[in-house]
Write a structure and sequence with these properties.
about 0% strand, mainly alpha, 5 helices
């Protein structure tokens, strides 16, 4: 019996993650090919206004809105699920495209190296 490598295990986990994200309804919007380096505003362009408002709401206000019937648990859960799915897509793209370029641009030096100096 062949023992699985960590890469094999990671691939299975990533495939499961991607399949799970693909089941979110409505579907998570596709991440554009060109994104700014600061991606903190991306949700407001790709999610609905209601989803952004819900996911940025302070917990106390969220609880009050739920208990007063202004929001439903389905709306809140869906908003956070879609935002989390979008975050995963953004991180996945950063890992695939951003980090390898960053590593090539400046090699990572050892903690005691003088290369860490600006």
């Amino acid at each position: 019996m062949t023992e699985k490598t960590w890469q094999d295990i990671a691939n299975v986990a990533q495939e499961y993650r991607d399949a799970s994200i693909n089941h979110v309804e409505p579907a998570i919007p596709a991440v554009p090919n060109s994104l700014p380096l600061d991606r903190t505003d991306v949700p407001k362009y790709l999610l609905s206004t209601e989803e952004v408002v819900i996911t940025q709401m302070p917990p106390e206000q969220l609880i009050a809105s739920l208990s007063a019937g202004k929001l439903t648990s389905i709306a809140v859960t869906t908003a956070f699920l879609r935002r989390a799915g979008l975050a995963q897509a953004l991180v996945r793209d950063l890992k695939l495209f951003g980090l390898p370029l960053a590593y090539k641009a400046r090699p990572i030096a050892s903690p005691n190296s003088s290369q860490n100096e600006p």
